């Protein structure tokens, strides 16, 4: 056995069309795994199909139960089972505090941000669960430093990422001993496509287009580096590998050491 993921039959990286999810796809493939990718963005679906012709890419919305079922079915059909589910979808709120949010924006923004950042994971895990139970597989969710601290997003993003932290703990408890559930908590990340919520008129705005982002990211963490998706991807590989078979309900903080600042 040479790759960390040799022998893993199938994986679904939800939201694997860009950024951290795409880096996880590439790292899993390089470690010998077979990967299927659900993604809702048409252009990203096309790019994945062109870059990785052997990877089944399933067009669908991660917030919908039926689309998650279809993605899992496709992976199982192609690979004969499912060992790992990775959730990488997410949208941002561009640091909007409650003070800046209009009363009339709260319902729409809450529904959209919590649907994408939280509910999608419930649907993905629910769809994959029968197969993960059979394989004694594992789930890896994507948190953020926002799951631990304020000010790394606005009130809705920070609250939604705290909820992902709650999902990791609750699901790890509920699904043991058959299925391990862990998370990666990335710090601010370069070269991703993370966008704002449509309900806030921010769906065309990209976090990485903010001026001076690279220097700002490096300056905010003790290790002084601006991390990319590739820097985080190996944490997903470790948690997904059988080498982590004794770890559940836990988190890898891939964040440049922000907690010791
Ligand atoms: N970029 C950062 O600084 C940062 C830091 C910490 C955590 N995160 C988290 O990492 C994860 C990945 O974000 P990223 O920065 O790589 O952004 P990204 O936009 O590049 O990746 C998110 C992916 O999810 C897809 N997606 C969004 N909504 C979807 C839906 N409803 N159905 C299916 N696919 C959908 C997008 O098309 C995209 O491919 C998110 O959960 C984000 O909150 C990002």
Automatic annotation (TrEMBL):
Keyword match NAD: yes
GO function term, MF aspect, one: 2,3-dihydroxy-2,3-dihydro-phenylpropionate dehydrogenase activity
InterPro entries per UniProt: NAD(P)-bd_dom_sf, Sc_DH/Rdtase_CS, SDR_fam
EC number: 1.3.1.87
Database matches in Pfam families: adh_short_C2
UniProt superkingdom: Bacteria
Family of this protein: Belongs to the short-chain dehydrogenases/reductases (SDR) family.
Protein name: 3-(Cis-5,6-dihydroxycyclohexa-1, 3-dien-1-yl)propanoate dehydrogenase
Gene transcribed to yield this protein: hcaB
